[in-house]
Fold:
Amino acid sequence: MLLAIDVGNTNIVLSFCDLNGDLIHTIRRNTEEVHDEITLFEAIRDCHQEVKQIVFASVVPRVDQLILNIGSRYFSVVPMQVKTGDESVGLKIDIDKPNTLGADRIAVAIGGIKKYGNNLLILDFGTAITFDVINESGAFVGGVVTAGIKTAVKALQSSTALLPLGKLDKIGAKIPRNIEDAIMYGLFFGYIGLVKEIVFQLKSNYNGQLKVVITGGEGKLISDNIDLDHIYDPDLVVNGLVEIFKQKNGF
Structure:
């Protein structure tokens, strides 16, 4: 079994897969709560005997060494790390500073290309929202980054002590009649409008047709509520990590 780990600023997603890329089981942990090797290993203790290889992408440097350590200590393997700006994993990065492209965006691009071909616009909803453009030859040619929905919610929570917040999963298309609904309505439909406008602008400036794919932790919420022709796929990062592992190891 292959353990594919996606380390984000908000969550660590641990996905147990076979080498065909089929997802067997997923565990999700809050990144802030994983502060040492023991807390990381505890998340995967029940499945650890079946793990033979590990591949990971991380945007949180402090977690990188934890994964490398548990690989050698508990699994007797050297985890394969997808690193920022690494074109050797099979993605051409055609932007001004290729070495700045995050490992998570590399993995999600490769996962998207493997499943849906080229000419893609991939929207990944996490701590940040990324809009990544893959051209007709399968190269990463640019994109957009903006704050994620829950990031905006946390910003309001930290700066508006007297304003109560509701839940994003209970938004209704109605005129808000209380302050909680008013705030969440503004956030939610504000982001729907933001996403649609950025997609429109990117499509307008691309010489060709782009297929839109939505993924990421908050992707389902947006996918279910946006009037936009798209595919929803929650597992693109995992798919990309598995594909990278297979390419590097000759599977």
Notes: Residues 2-82 form a domain with the Nucleotidyltransferase; domain 5 fold (CATH 3.30.420.40).
